[in-house]
Specification:
Protein name: Sensor histidine kinase MtrB
Radius of gyration: 53 Å
Largest sheet: 7 strands, mixed
EC number: 2.7.13.3
Catalytic activity: ATP + protein L-histidine = ADP + protein N-phospho-L-histidine
Distance between the termini: 84 Å
Organism: Arthrobacter ramosus
Structural class: alpha+beta
Order of helices and strands: HEEHHHEEHEEEHHHEHEEHEEHHEEEE
Subcellular location: Cell membrane
Shape: elongated
Helix content: 40-55%
Strand content: 15-25%
Length: 662
């Protein structure tokens, strides 16, 4: 820097300083080290300039990075807001008839007004232009004739008089007063063969030039005779460009042909058109707001009773049977409200009657079941005494004692099921949930069904990839469900194997019981959980039963917030699937097992399965043993859940369900 370059003071003797003082006369502007005196100043400033450039470049990059981060952050905050607003509008559009009607009315009104406004504006602009054009053509013919007559009658023959005559004549064309009504451009035609008047080449008003004339108009005027032509153009007036009309003609003076263009300013007409358009826009906006308000008022008067009816109907569906609509007036909406209230009253009366009848039936079943328990106990005790002494009877009495004992057992089972159903109907059934290993329950059920399976000659095969699955459930009710499913499968399996599969995912566990017996049709599958229903009423039931087992199983599944579904096909057997949430009160998204068995239509190779086979003569596994026969420490923690076995499929063909639908 110049301020950093200092000159050493001279010695008192007038001689130069020492060598060190001479070396210190000049210092480097950046490093501060001394440099020789003969070093160029530009060379001294170059490193400093490079250093400052590098610093400012880095600062600019940092500033750009910070600005870009601010922009990205703003976009990240704005985008969710826009997305939320768009979703809110879509939700409002789908759910509000009033909003949809008003929005459609406003949009259609805006489109209609835009079309009508554009048409009116175009017509007004065209009419204003045509009117001004006719006026310009008429005035141009008059003033061009006047100019030509003046030139023809002129006796000027010197330069001064010719210039004065042309100037005065063209000045008169502009009009009188301070306001210029017309502007002119006076230009000699190029390339004339006749002798030309060199005193006047061109004239124009208000500092205009021939460049403001469209080339097409000049060409038409130059190639014509005495015809008049016009064209739209723009020319400068002060600091602005005004729209206008240029009308061109030919005039002659002293043998020279000139192009005379009269320019008419359309700025006043343009201002008038702008004012009309502003009025149209303002009136249109006010009209659209008025139409929107009217549409909102009318739609609200029509939709409000409908919305009120929807709210009342939702309350009626929720059990508030006393809710009614408010009826005002005698119009169509009032008649609709009166009809709705009459319908609601009729429904309330019928529902009350049905509820009373249902309560009476439930009370009757419960009372009869309770009243029958005492005599049934007495009859059972007598039947047991006769059954124990049957060996002393003759064959006929012996057979009668056996039949009496068996039917009393069946009657007692039916009575127990009726009592359980009455508790479900009365809403008195509650869950006693606690964390339990599902394999303990499954093993206990298989243990209990082993004698029946041995009698039918069937084998029960347990399939699972898990060693331990803890479920919060009522073990007694799940045991009853699985026992019903397994005994039904054994009874209808016709001596073929019965497969029990267990699988789990992150929120549910599924147990399926698959048999290969007579199967069911789609109609039979749809009714399999109905009370006292049988696929073939004439078919003997050797295992007994009341016809309420699957109905009770469906009610137990509902208490667990689970799914109980059935699949069947004639000649291919049937499959019952029980799906339970792992946690009490949890929800099921997808069952770990598919309902339609994979052995019916298998798209690829079957996955590897681990099985526990229980033959008819084999003893059942010990309670609490795992379903996986592979060696390992039974006390080890449960492994992570593997892929579901078999793959989950669509619950489509021939399904029936109990509990919550998937």
């Amino acid at each position: 820097m110049v301020s950093d370059i200092k000159q050493a003071p001279e010695s008192s003797t007038g001689e130069p300083g020492t060598d060190q003082e001479a070396a210190a006369k000049v210092k480097h502007p950046v490093s501060g080290h001394p440099v020789p005196e003969h070093t160029d100043a530009r060379a001294l400033n170059l490193p400093w300039i490079l250093e400052r450039t590098r610093i400012w470049t880095r600062r600019a990059l940092i500033l750009a990075l910070r600005v870009s981060r601010l922009v990205v952050t703003g976009l990240r905050h704005i985008r969710p807001g826009i997305r939320y607003l768009w979703r809110a509008l879509l939700r409002r559009w789908r759910r509000s008839l009033e909003f949809r009607t008003v929005a459609v009315t406003i949009v259609l009104s805006m489109v209609s007004f835009a079309v009508v406004g554009a048409y009116l504006s175009n017509q007004i602009a065209n009419n204003l232009f045509q009117e001004r054009l006719k006026q310009a053509e008429s005035e141009s013919r008059y003033y061009v004739k006047q100019v030509q007559d003046t030139f023809d009658g002129s006796q000027a023959n010197d330069q001064s008089s010719v210039i004065t005559l042309v100037y005065d004549t063209l000045k008169a064309v502009e009009g009188n007063g301070s306001v210029i009504q017309r502007r002119y451009v006076f230009e000699a035609m190029p390339e004339q063969t006749k002798p030309r008047n060199r005193w006047v080449e061109s004239r124009a008003s208000d500092q205009l030039t021939v460049r403001v004339i469209p080339p097409a108009l000049r060409k038409s005027v130059q190639e014509s005779g005495k015809d008049q032509y016009w064209a739209s153009t723009e020319f400068p007036v002060g600091n602005q460009d005004h729209p206008g009309i240029a009308v061109g003609n030919k005039v002659t003076f002293n043998g020279t042909v000139y192009e005379l263009y009269l320019l008419y300013d359309l700025d006043t007409a343009q201002q008038t058109l702008d004012e009309i358009q502003n009025v149209l826009w303002a009136g249109g906006a006010a009209l659209i707001l008025m139409i929107g308000g009217i549409a909102w008022y009318v739609t609200r008067n029509v939709v409000s009773p409908v919305s009120h009816a929807a709210v009342v109907s939702e309350k009626l569906a929720a059990g508030q049977l006393q809710e009614r609509m408010v009826v005002k007036g005698e119009d169509e909406v009032a008649r609709l409200g009166a009809s709705f209230n009459h319908m609601a009253a009729s429904l309330q009366e019928q529902i009350t009657q049905l509820a009373t009848l249902s309560q009476m039936q439930q009370r009757f079943v419960s009372d009869v079941s309770h009243e029958l328990r005492t005599p049934l106990t007495t009859v059972r005790m007598a039947a047991e005494v006769l059954f124990d002494a049957r060996d002393d009877f003759d064959p006929i009495n012996k057979r009668s004692a056996e039949l009496l004992y068996n039917q009393v057992e069946r009657f007692q089972s039916l009575l127990s099921d009726l009592l359980e159903i009455s508790r479900f109907d009365a809403g008195a059934a509650v869950l006693d949930s606690e964390p339990t290993d599902i394999f303990q329950v499954v093993s206990h059920v298989i243990d209990g069904a082993s004698p029946v399976a041995a009698e039918y000659g069937s084998e029960v095969r347990l399939t699972s990839r898990h060693k331990r699955i803890i479920v919060e459930m009522d073990a007694r009710r799940i045991d009853r469900i699985l026992r019903n499913l397994l005994l039904n499968a054994v009874e209808h399996g016709e001596g073929k194997p019965v497969h029990v599969s267990v699988a789990a995912n992150h929120d549910a566990v599924a147990i399926s019981v698959r048999d290969f017996g007579i199967g069911m049709t789609a109609a039979e599958t749809a009714r399999v959980f109905d009370r006292f229903w049988r696929a073939d009423p004439a078919r003997a039931r050797t295992t007994g039963g009341s016809g309420l087992g699957l109905s009770i199983a469906a009610e137990d599944t509902k208490l667990h917030n689970g799914w109980l579904q059935a699949w069947g096909r004639k000649g291919s057997g049937s499959n019952f699937r029980l799906t339970l949430p792992l946690k009490k009160g949890g929800t099921i998204v997808k069952s770990p097992l598919q309902l339609e068995p994979a052995d019916i239509h298998l798209p690829g190779a079957a996955p590897e399965r681990q099985m526990l086979v229980l033959d008819a003569g084999d003893p059942p596994p010990e309670r609490g043993s795992t379903a996986d026969p592979s060696p390992g420490d039974a006390s080890s923690p449960p492994p992570a859940l593997p892929p579901v076995l078999p793959p989950a499929g669509n619950d489509d063909a021939d399904t029936a369900q109990g509990g919550t639908a998937p």
